[in-house]
Write a structure and sequence with these properties.
Blueprint (H helix, E strand, L loop, with lengths): L4 H14 L4 E4 L4 H10 L8 E4 L12
Parallel strand pairs: 1-2
């Protein structure tokens, strides 16, 4: 899945039209630029919901 800044602008605008509050995911600190774009463009007027998806090394096995 590839989301360009242009496609993210379209999706954010549509979510605003529907009255939904967008939740933005940040997979690394480089996403700060992408998160800032809808703010500068006036597409996000409320507080943002930002999900930080910062992984760490861990085992995939579960221990019971």
């Amino acid at each position: 899945m590839i989301n360009t800044i242009g496609s993210l602008r379209k999706m954010t605008k549509r979510l605003q039209e529907l009255g939904a509050k967008p939740e933005l995911e940040m997979l690394d600190l480089g996403y700060l630029m992408i998160v800032n774009d809808p703010i500068k463009g006036g597409l996000v007027h409320d507080l943002l919901l930002i999900q930080l998806c910062m992984g760490w090394a861990t085992s995939r096995r579960t221990i019971c």
